[in-house]
Amino acid sequence: MKKLSTKDLVQIAVLTSMLSVASVFAIPIGPIPITLQVFFFLLIPALMGRYKGALTILLYMLLGLIGFPVFAGGSGGFQSVLSPAFGYIIGAVLVSLVVGRLHEKRVSSMEVISTMIVGILLLYVVGITYQYVIMNVYLQTPISWQAIILTNITTFLPIDMVKAFAAGIVCRRLEAVLIRTA
User: Fold this and answer.
1) Strand partners for 34
2) Cα separation, 145 vs 132, whole angstroms
């Protein structure tokens, strides 16, 4: 990986800030709230590429873990690792590596949106697995895989699919604007 330029560092800082603000506003509906995090988990690597996208999400995670109130609902601190929702933040780093490939390969709008949907599926695999372990082992709240999967698919997946579609559209529009002004 090449050395990061000042422009790269500014982009990472700005997008980390945007992700942080989008995460604070949450609709609490159980152990996993609804936020705009997923939209930015998809948009950031699509715009910046996999490495800068992953760095952005890792910076966001670090800020939250050291205590800045950047996680869903304004939470933060190392204890956030024990939240059932934290798996989705871990998954976002992996998602950035997958979705970030878009930046390296110019692709069609359908491929952009398809990759974002694959990103959501990866996010769900990591997030649901983490949620199951935290709830059953740490919180000692017995809940089955089926219940967690069903809840996530019926409650969050439709909303996240809209976010994926929106992120794909915003990404294409921003790319068009950025290419014209470059």
Assistant:
1) 27
2) 7
Half-sphere exposure of 57 (CA within 13 A, CB side): 29
Residue 182 has pLDDT above 80, yes or no: no
DSSP 77: S
Q: What is the pLDDT of residues 16-60, one digit of tens each?
A: 999 999 998 888 887 788 899 999 999 999 999 999 999 999 999
State pTM to two decimals: 0.90
The residue type found at 168 is G
Q: Which of 160, 79, 170 is nearest to 127 (CA)?
A: 160
Which DSSP string corresponds to 50-64? HHHHHHHHHHHHHHH
Q: What is the pLDDT of residues 105-141, one digit of tens each?
A: 767 878 888 888 999 999 999 999 999 999 999 999 8
